Amino acid sequence: MPALALVTLVVRDYDEAVDFYTRALGFELVEDTDRGDGSRWVVVRPRGAAQGTGLLLARAKNETEEAAVGAQTGGRVGFFLHTDDFGRDHARMTAAGVRFLEEPRHEPYGSVAVFEDLYGNRWDLLQPAGA
């Protein structure tokens, strides 16, 4: 098995999620296919990550799934977005309205800051040391 292809992220609304991930995080929309039953197959991934893991944005369709929106990792950082230029991407994301929960830190493993997506899921923006 050469790669992990997709990770599902439960969202409230397809269009608001696509807007956030493409506009605020700079991801690209890879696929948006109507499945004919009111649902869509929506995949985004970091721009330029042709073979990287993508996010399958899945609209919540019942109370259990709705309750998981924004809390899919129990309040822990669950997603790690690598960058090759921390300062550039932190500034761009801040200007786009991304809410960072802390000031950037410089750790032995790299430069990092925790941010929340539009639903409250926590992410690390991370430039690994030596990158």
List its salient traits.
single chain, 131 residues, alpha+beta, five-stranded mixed sheet, four-stranded mixed sheet, 3 helices, 9 strands, 21% helix, globular
Plain-language structure description:
It is globular and about 45 Å long. It has helices at 14-24, 63-68, 86-95; strands at residues 6-11, 27-34, 40-46, 54-59, 77-82, 99-100, 105-107, 110-116, 122-128. Strand 7 (105-107) and strand 8 form a beta hairpin. It contains three helices and nine strands. Strands 5, 6, 7, 8 and 9 form a five-stranded mixed β-sheet that branches. A four-stranded mixed β-sheet has the order 1-4-3-2. It has 131 residues and is of the alpha+beta class. The two termini are 26 Å apart.
